[in-house]
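Structure ticket #2291
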Amino acid sequence: MRRTTSIGFGGKTERKHPFIKHTVGIIYDTLEEPVCIRRSASFKDDYLYYKLLNDLAIKYPDSEISAIYARMKYLVAVVCTDSKTVKTLYLTERIKKGDVIWQAHPPK
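Resolution: structure written out below.
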């Protein structure tokens, strides 16, 4: 599938998290088919793209890490609309507060 998203990855993100280069497909899936997009309550130029972890093919390296992340529900890609970069990725248990930009279905 041709990727048309023009969002880049900031140099700081790649330096701090070199594994990002190997997860580009997961990042694109999150950006192209999120369950929810919210504007950050703290940084108005940032949009938070939420993707259900169950919808992603993520393999954890060992059972200890798998147990830690078992309670996590969403992968979040934070996109800065001003610089058009993915600022960071993180896992979370819930959707954070912020203006709803788009939502596929009500959060659970």
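Closing remark: DSSP finds three helices and six strands in the chain.
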